[in-house]
Amino acid sequence: VYLVYAQQSSANNPVSCCNWAGEYGDPANLVRGQGENQSIKEMVDRMKADHGIDSARIYVAGFSAGAAFVPVLLATWPDVFAGGAVMSGVPYRCAQSVQGAVGRSAIDVGCGSGIQSLNLLFLGVAHVIALDANDSALRATEMNAQAAGFGGKIEARRSDLFGRCSERFPWSAE
């Protein structure tokens, strides 16, 4: 197993996060072969060349802003990445800025204790559908939502990755 750990410079983003929405005046980050997506692709190319890695077995994963950048990489480089894991991120181009997510609804799949649902609400998302297959996780999510003052804004539902959510979102793949 070989890993590339990309790290953001505070010169590119004051909070050292990936620029998944073209933040800080550089929408090039969302365009194939430009900005951060090009930089990460170059890191992957170097790793492949140095270690003779099978191109069909390159995957990308991220958490939080890194997870929000995973769909950018998958959308801009489908010929490079075999797949990806988005852990508490957002779909490609669902917002043109972090503030563009304000007032929208979101889904937290595998909500656990609801921490990422709460993070979304603190950022200004209006409503979160929190999904988990574990009833204890759903109870914890509801308790944490109440404790944080967001009781009516998180809807905890029992579901797994194969269950369907009846709501439609502008970025859904249906």
Which tags fit this structure?
single chain; 174 residues; alpha/beta; 4 helices; 29% helix; 15% strand; globular
Characterise this structure.
By secondary structure, the chain is of the alpha/beta class. It contains 4 helices and 5 strands, in the order αβαββαβαβ. The strands form 2 sheets. Strands 3-4-5 form a 3-stranded parallel beta sheet, with helices on one face. The protein has a two-stranded parallel sheet with strand order 1-2. The longest helix is centred in the first third of the chain and has 17 residues, at 35-51. The protein starts with 34 loop residues before the first helix and ends in a 16-residue tail after the last strand. The mean pLDDT is 81.
- State the share of residues found in helices, binned by percent: 25-40%
Order of SSEs: HEHEEHEHE
> How would a crystallographer describe the biggest sheet?
3 strands, parallel
- Distance between the first and last residues' Cα: 34 Å
Overall structural class, as computed from helix and strand content, comes to alpha/beta
Molecular shape: globular
Q: Provide the residue-averaged pLDDT.
A: 81
Entry summary:
The chain has 174 residues and is α/β, with parallel strands linked by helices.
SSE topology:
Layout (H helix, E strand, L loop, with lengths): L34 H17 L7 E5 L1 H12 L6 E5 L17 E5 L5 H9 L3 E6 L2 H13 L6 E5 L16
Parallel strand pairs: 1-2, 3-4, 4-5
